[in-house]
Amino acid sequence: MIVRKNQANLSAAEKSAFVNAVLELKRRGVYDEFVTLHRTRFIQDMNPAYVRTGHNTPSFLPWHRQYLIAFERELRTIDASVSIPYWNWVIDRSPTASPWTPDLLGGGGLGTNFQVLDGPFAYATGNWPITVQIDTHPFLRRTLGGTYPLPRQSDVDQAMAATVYDAPPWNENSPNTFRNILEGNWGAFLHNQVHTWVGGQMAQPVSPNDPVFWLHHAFVDKLWADWQQLHPASPYLPNGTTPDAVDLNEAMAPWDGPGGVTPAQMLDHTPYYTYL
Ligand code: CU1
Ligand code: CU1
């Protein structure tokens, strides 16, 4: 059974196992395939010619759940002891404490380019060139702290108090729905705000270039699981044949070929992993 742990509680051996598996996927080119997949998805999600599947849409949560499961599977082909840790940004708010330490993700960016200079993902190590880009910086960048603070418990509570999963118009304007509050478009500013707080590549469609992406989304995913427990009678919506949104039993691009992945298949995470 795969158990995802709080990054703040990882042992030195668990940290290095995670880091080493990530670096090996990068070396093999697999990591950048994941970055490309996310960039393509994000750009298509912003293009009205496509049905949104990953962002500003109900399937934001199941889409990223499947994306993390696929990435975790790859990590475990390198080291079967590894799982994706989660970063509880409500509690672990310091830009100079874990996960921003040299034994895990390295620290914030420095200088006019906000280049990350320490830890396993610093450019000088030669192990972490940014090759899937939006801008032309070949190195990992972070502007930890940004303009707005990380979300607080009261923000999370606002999402947890929502009683419906999602509602028309099924996008960034859906009023007071769990998905839209957690995604960060309504009321409290949660998931999106964390991307902005980290800054650099994390604030771009190529956000998985920063390995904190996985830790951030594992926590977002955990909050979804927590909300499901609190609201067992509130189903995934929409569940019909809604245009411009992925319904419960429709497959989510790019996993919409044979054996495609639907939100219905993603509602229960426990066959895949649990949270500690
Ligand atoms: Cu995303
Ligand atoms: Cu995200």
Describe, in plain words, how this protein is organized in 3D.
Strand 2 and strand 3 (115-116) form a beta hairpin. Helix 1 (12-28) crosses helix 3 (60-78), helix 3 packs across helix 7 (212-230) and helix 4 (153-161) packs across helix 7 (212-230). The protein has one domain (3-275): Di-copper center containing domain from catechol oxidase (di-copper center containing domain from catechol oxidase, Orthogonal Bundle), CATH 1.10.1280. The protein is built from 8 helices and 4 strands. The chain starts with a strand and ends with a strand. The chain has a two-stranded parallel sheet with strand order 1-4. The chain has 276 residues and is an all-alpha fold. 36% of the residues lie in helices and 3% in strands. The structure holds copper (I) ion (2 copies). Residues 38, 54-55, 64 line the site of one copper (I) ion (CU1).
List keywords for this structure.
di-copper center containing domain from catechol oxidase; single chain; two-stranded parallel ribbon; globular
Query: What is the CA-based Rg, rounded?
Result: 18 Å
Q: Helix content range of the residues, please?
A: 25-40%
End-to-end separation: 12 Å
What is the spatial order of strands in the main beta sheet?
Answer: 1-4
Number of strands: 4
- Sheet bearing the most strands, described? 2 strands, parallel
CATH fold-level label: di-copper center containing domain from catechol oxidase
The DSSP helix count reads 8
Instruction: Round the mean pLDDT to the nearest integer and report it.
Output: 97
What is the H level of CATH, i.e. the homologous superfamily? Di-copper center containing domain from catechol oxidase
Beta content: under 5%
CATH architecture: Orthogonal Bundle
Give the helices and strands as they follow along the chain: EHHHEEHHHHHE
- Tell me the structural class: mainly alpha
The CATH class is identified as Mainly Alpha
The small molecules bound here are: copper (I) ion
How would you name the oligomeric state of the polypeptide chains in this document? Answer: single chain
Shape: globular
Low-confidence stretches: none
